[in-house]
Design a protein that fits this description.
Largest sheet: 8 strands, mixed
Structural class: alpha/beta
Strand order of the largest sheet: 1-2-4-3-5-6-7-8
Distance between the termini: 25 Å
Helix content: 25-40%
Oligomer: single chain
Radius of gyration: 17 Å
């Protein structure tokens, strides 16, 4: 994906393809590379796929929250002069998409959520991240996936670096607390965009009942399950994820 990275103004993002804009939003501990297969697939299927790098650790601490991350997304969409976008978000990225739609509904043609926060999540269980404890980080990273092998040493090291740095840890906790404050349950019934929910049956971070609540509260949603899959279906079962989403786009004429 590094071949597709661009740096313009204050934005760093990956972009490829032509067609309807598909904006992908990564999670709190996520990275642009989490969506490698989705990026490659849909950029060849008639979509302009864009993955902005979210400023999770560069905003002032008092502005490190869901509201200002959604504001950043708005600035990005305006900068790129995009219309009728599809927002695709995993985990925190889904929450940012929901908050964005609450305030800028006319910008968004459709929504795709996978393992999204916004209602409830269990990102750290009953424990706060422990600095210096790589064993803890490995266990928590493995819990994200059904197939523990996806929690490679490289991925564990990335999460460890975030947690072991005081600045990024403080901002990680600030965003997590902001996500709790910005619960979207009362807003979902007002979101009329067609929504595709793609959920891992074995997700322990945003468990299956969260997907069912999203499906119940959103006015126009379709829920799809991915078996033997945890919190990040686009990483763990990318072919299945892409097939479901492609068929949904066709069904919804997107």
């Amino acid at each position: 994906m590094t071949d597709f990275l661009k740096k313009e103004d204050k934005f760093t993002y990956a972009e490829a393809g032509e067609g309807r804009p598909l904006i992908v939003l990564h999670g709190l501990m996520g990275a642009l590379s989490n969506f490698d297969e989705t990026f490659k697939f849909f950029s060849k299927k008639g979509y302009k796929v864009l993955i902005p790098e979210l400023p999770l650790y560069s905003l002032p601490i008092l502005k490190t929250n869901v509201k200002n991350l959604a504001k950043f997304l708005h600035e990005f969409i305006e900068y790129k002069n995009l219309k009728d976008v599809v927002l695709l978000g995993n985990s925190l990225g889904g929450h940012i998409a929901l908050y964005y739609i609450k305030h800028y509904p006319k910008d968004v043609a459709a929504l795709v959520l996978t393992g999204s926060s916004g209602l409830y999540e269990n990102s750290m269980g009953n424990n706060y991240p422990r600095r210096g404890d790589k064993g803890f980080v490995r266990r928590k990273t493995e819990e994200v996936f059904y197939d523990k092998a996806i929690a490679t040493d490289e991925l564990v090291d990335q999460v460890y670096d975030v947690i072991n740095d005081r600045n990024t840890l403080v901002k990680t906790l600030a965003i997590a607390k902001s996500a709790v404050r910005h619960n979207m349950a009362k807003d979902l019934p007002n979101m009329e965009q067609p929504t595709c929910l793609i959920w891992g049956e074995n997700d322990t971070v945003t468990p299956p009942e969260v997907a069912e609540d999203f499906d119940r509260l959103l006015p126009d949603s379709d829920l799809y399950w991915v078996d033997k899959c945890g919190h990040a279906a686009m990483m763990e079962r990318p072919e299945k994820f892409n097939t479901i989403l492609e068929e949904w786009f066709k069904h919804r004429k997107l």
